[in-house]
Specification:
Nucleotidyltransferase, domain 5; 21% strand; 18 helices; alpha+beta; single chain; six-stranded mixed beta sheet; seven-stranded mixed beta sheet
Length: 507
């Protein structure tokens, strides 16, 4: 491959949209970004949230033209790929237009469908089939909700597309669905890497309703003349299938069998790559979910936990003068506070039906407040609380899959915070390896694109060529001893609060 060739990654996150050009040496040679957020549904109830696909597409097109312009004649774009968050998608008509708005994972409307679902199928059966827990934003619940409250949308619909498929359709005019995205739907027979007729029947659907399966690394289609006008990318450039962002971050972490991967962003996903599909009661009861890996024959058991979303909440509430993602002031203030944050305990369970505290029904909680507590102390307590949550998740995965964990590889935006990584290592008592290149998802998607145009014959070959570097954080024995005691307080607190939260906050 020529050194002046590159791939374009459309990386759509639920808080940020980016278009990034990566060359054959895995260098970022151009990038542009814009914020992203759901919007109220115009004809809906006040708390209904949707994604404005036209706005997302316009942002991508604007950013793409800027990236293409900055590349000039230095680079030739040889492939494009798309990665997005999971769970969300939409019914579309034959021309690709929406038959119903894209319900956001942040929209609470589907909570009311959960009792109906559980009256028809046991959650343990759901887990055995799909690897998924019942979480209010599961895609299947959206399909059931639309079937119940907007049935006319199904009459107009040609198929269903997940977020990557919606964007790829605008680029190529082709329909597809990939296993990494579909595995977030609670609708797959995960062992078979195919649809579950039993699960789809709950929404009165069958597999014929959905588009063709395409594996990551396959060609979804080619840039159309219309897409060329909108994006600046040449007509005929192949668009390679990627999919759910988490899976590509997990891929690029290159963890050994004795290491776990922490993909840290708005959400944190603690995961492993397992060469068999296995479910057990312990994993189910502890709230583990399992998704399809980028590669067939591999699965990703994981725990999904809110993470930087909590830190963003702190920024908005306690640091309103700071621009979005400007965390250095917060970090500097936290560094002035002692380990243990002056006995402030921050329980970051802001989405109570996910993560390792799910079984306790825990809500977000701050204990130990006093008039002497600073905002820097709150931020440090949050970093520590997120690290306690991580340790609990490590214990859950270790117990569920009989693992001997000797280290954690951290990728994503949360890997850039040195203080957080230091606290993680000290709380866990394990080495933490943070990827020096923070663009894990983007790099994983780029690797997939290069493989898709036959630059590499396998993902292993592509990863070897990437020569990834990680920064090591080793635990301090004295601080680990302190944090072990503080972690025990955290566990005591979530167990003690269980009766209160289950009595007053249960669905």
């Amino acid at each position: 491959m020529s050194s002046n060739e590159c791939v374009i990654v459309f990386d759509c996150g639920s808080t940020n949209i980016r278009v990034i050009a990566i060359d054959s040496n895995y260098n970022v040679v151009a990038q542009r970004s814009k914020p992203n957020s759901p919007v109220p549904q115009p004809d809906g109830k006040p708390n209904w949230l949707i994604w404005d696909l036209d706005k997302i597409w316009q942002s991508l097109c604007t950013l793409s033209k800027q990236v293409i312009s900055s590349l000039g004649d230095k680079y030739q774009v040889v492939a494009v790929t798309v990665t997005t968050w999971g769970a969300d998608g939409a019914l579309v008509k034959r021309d690709g237009s929406l038959a119903y708005p894209i319900i956001s994972w942040q929209c609470p409307r589907t909570k009311e469908i959960i009792p109906e679902l559980l009256s028809r199928i046991d959650p343990w059966e759901i887990f055995k089939i799909t690897g998924y827990q019942v979480i209010y934003f599961n895609t299947l619940l959206k399909l059931m909700w639309i079937r119940k409250y907007a049935p006319e949308a199904f009459r107009e619909a040609y198929t269903w597309l997940m977020m990557p498929g919606l964007i790829v359709h605008r680029l190529t005019n082709s329909f597809h669905i990939d296993p990494t995205s579909a595995s977030t739907m609670m609708a797959m027979d995960l062992a078979k890497r195919d649809w579950s007729s039993e699960m789809l029947a709950l929404a009165d659907l069958d597999s014929s309703f959905f588009p063709e399966w395409k594996e990551p690394g396959e060609i979804a289609g080619y840039i159309t003349s219309k897409a060329h006008k909108h994006t600046g990318i040449k007509e005929g450039v192949p668009v390679i299938v990627s999919g759910h962002d988490t899976q590509f971050a997990i891929l690029v972490a290159s963890a050994t069998k004795e290491e776990l991967v922490l993909s840290s962003g708005t959400w944190e996903i603690l995961a492993l790559r397992l060469d068999r599909y296995t479910v057990n009661r312990t994993a189910f009861e502890e709230g583990i979910i399992i998704e399809a890996d980028v590669e067939p024959g591999i699965w990703n058991p994981q725990l999904l936990m809110i993470a930087s979303g909590v830190l963003e909440w702190i920024r908005k509430l306690f640091y309103p003068e700071l621009s979005k993602r400007d965390y250095q002031v917060m970090i500097n203030e936290a560094l002035k506070e002692p380990p243990g944050a002056n006995n402030v305990l921050f329980i970051p369970s802001f989405v109570s039906d996910s993560g390792p505290t799910r079984k306790y029904g825990t809500q977000g909680t701050i204990l130990g407040l006093g008039l002497n507590i600073s905002r820097g102390c709150i931020y440090r307590a949050a970093l520590e609380g997120l690290s306690y949550q991580l340790r609990l998740a490590v214990e859950v995965l270790t117990r569920s899959f009989d693992l001997n964990v000797k280290g954690i590889r951290v990728v994503g935006g949360g890997s850039k915070n040195n203080l957080w990584n230091t606290i993680r290592a000290n709380v866990l008592g394990l080495p933490v390896y943070a990827m020096k290149l923070g663009e894990a998802t983007v790099l994983g998607a780029a690797i997939t694109a290069f493989k898709g145009i036959d630059v590499y014959k396998s993902f292993d070959e592509a990863l070897r060529e990437a020569k990834l570097e990680f920064k090591e954080y080793l635990p301090d024995p004295e601080l680990h001893k302190l944090y072990r005691e503080l972690y025990e307080r955290y566990v005591y607190a979530i167990k003690s609060l269980e009766p209160y939260y289950k009595r007053h906050f249960s669905h």
